[in-house]
Specification:
Structural class: mainly alpha
Largest sheet: none
Helix content: over 70%
Oligomer: single chain
Number of strands: 0
Number of domains: 4
Distance between the termini: 40 Å
Length: about 500
């Protein structure tokens, strides 16, 4: 992983687009005095730097003293965010509601109670229309405050109606909190461990699902209650390799946004994530036509304002689109053609590495390694696998394990038997330590040990190994190994004397 600066201000400035930088300078000129000229100078200096270096910054900008730098940076940070808030307000319903709430509080503080209540009623309708339940709670709190301190005579039975509304909103927030917590816990479990490895893992995931949250929201028609419930079943199916369940609930997830289209703008990241999960489920089920159709939908979304006007959505949609495109090459057996994308992906990763989560970077490295391996370039695959193996963070135990296993197989392909002999022991110990040794891995390691002893001449043994592994592919607890490595196609390529991509391409054409 590149050694990137962690300076928050520097990263924020580097994330700004040209229009946002121009807007910031206009904002400062409009709202600040001459004393703020230094923050503009600091802004320009940081904008020109490629990496953050405080000594260089002070050396090139003598008017900025070291003792005042900390305060200047804090002030500049706040001013950039304030300028962005004004610029992005029309694109975010929560910012609009928040501003209106501020206005209502100002009216109240001025003693204009009736005007404040009228505005609060408008905010309430806006929040309901856009499923912003937490803002409803804030509106109701302010309404209750006004009604309890002042005699407004705004309507009859006001106290009873406000109490009922507050109870309804509290119940909804309780449900949303419970189901969103469960969704996050399931996703967190997957990020840490990957797919379920054994009965113990399945029990752990079952225990998460059996906490009552699913039943609590089952009959709810609220947008967020349904969204998080669908997510829970998505993660649950994906972890347990129940790909049909994963597909069904990913489709419900996307359908929810198609039915309430205005929510695509409000929760655009969730919508894009739903499309990603739908594409992934279709890939796992080998539903080729719909897989390609949904990739087209994602490409169309990437050209829409919800992505073009949002840096976070740009990054996420890029990640999901290129993961989908790599998966398409895996499906079709067109590994060599897929390698054409690698320079584009590498270049883009350099641009967005400051904002990328480590998990996504690992996934890209592993998939690129698989592209090279499938294309018959085991040496290049090793380069990308080394990036994963030498990763310093404790993330994605499954990818760490199967990267090492593919690394071992790549050296086997290259005939580096001395390295294979050393690696087979260390990889076996590592996978055992990480509780990632199943029947498939044990059989594979036994084969490699025998192959080392015989000097690699084991043509008949490839056939025997294939016959042993093929039944395990249908076993749900053992099939996870085949998701990370297409061992069957590799063995068939060795037996038939063809490259891996030719074998997969033949299967793809036969499947079509």
């Amino acid at each position: 992983m590149p050694n990137l600066s962690s300076d928050a201000l520097f990263i924020l400035i580097k994330s700004l687009e040209k229009g946002e930088k121009r807007n910031f300078k206009l904002f400062v000129a409009r709202n600040s005095g001459s004393a703020d000229l230094k923050i503009v100078q600091l802004f320009d200096a940081l904008d020109k730097m490629h990496t953050y270096d405080e000594e260089e910054l002070l050396r090139k900008n003598e008017s900025i003293q070291k003792q005042q730098l900390s305060n200047l940076k804090a002030h500049l940070y706040d001013q950039i965010l304030s300028s962005l808030r004004i610029l992005k307000q029309s694109e975010n319903i929560d910012l609009q509601i928040h501003e209106q709430l501020d206005h209502a509080k100002i009216l109240y503080n001025k003693g204009l109670y009736i005007q404040s209540l009228r505005l609060l009623e408008k905010i309430k309708q806006l929040a309901k229309q856009n499923n912003q339940v937490t803002y409803l709670l804030q509106v109701l709190f302010l309404e209750k405050k006004i009604e309890s301190l002042h005699i407004t005579r705004s309507m009859q039975d006001r106290a009873e109606k406000l109490s009922l509304e507050m109870n309804e909103v509290n119940d909804r927030i309780e449900m949303i909190t419970a189901i969103s917590n469960l969704s996050l816990q399931l996703y967190g479990w997957y990020i840490q461990h990957g797919h379920a490895r054994n009965d113990e893992d399945r029990k752990a995931v079952d225990d998460l699902m059996n906490n009552g949250s699913i039943e609590l929201v089952k009959s709810s028609k609220g947008f967020y209650e349904r969204l998080y419930r669908y997510q829970c079943y998505c993660w649950y199916g994906f972890i347990n390799q129940d790909f049909l369940m994963h597909y069904r609930y990913a489709q419900k997830w996307v359908d929810l946004f198609d039915k309430e289209e205005h929510m695509q703008q409000i929760e655009s990241a969730q919508y894009i994530k739903g499309l990603h999960n739908l594409i992934t489920s279709l890939f796992d089920l080998r539903y080729v036509d719909k897989f390609k159709e949904t990739i087209t939908v994602l490409e169309n979304v990437m050209d829409s304002p919800i992505v073009l006007n949002n840096q976070n959505n740009k990054i996420q949609s890029f990640v999901y689109l290129y993961i989908a495109k790599i998966n398409q090459h895996f499906l079709e057996g067109s590994f060599s053609e897929g390698l054409v994308m690698v320079p584009t992906i590498e270049e883009k990763l350099k641009d967005i590495i400051l904002y990328m989560d480590s998990h996504r970077v690992l996934v890209f490295y592993y998939k690129i390694a698989c592209l090279y391996f499938g294309a018959g370039q085991a040496d290049k695959a090793i380069d990308y696998l080394n990036r994963i193996i030498h990763w310093k963070l404790n993330l994605r135990d499954d990818l760490q394990c199967y990267a090492r296993l593919l690394h071992l197989i790549a050296h086997y392909e290259l005939g580096n038997m001395d390295i294979v002999n050393y690696l087979s022991k260390s990889v076996y110990r590592y996978m055992a330590k990480m509780n990632n040794l199943g029947a498939v891995e044990e059989v594979l390691f036994n084969f490699i040990r025998k192959s080392i002893q015989s000097g690699g001449e084991m043509n008949q043994s490839f056939q025997d190994l294939l016959q042993t592994l093929q039944p395990l592919e249908k076993n749900k607890l053992e099939s996870r190994a085949f998701m990370y490595l297409d061992i069957i196609s590799w063995l068939e390529s060795r037996i038939q004397g063809k490259d891996v991509q030719s074998i997969i391409k033949e299967k793809y054409l036969l499947h079509k």
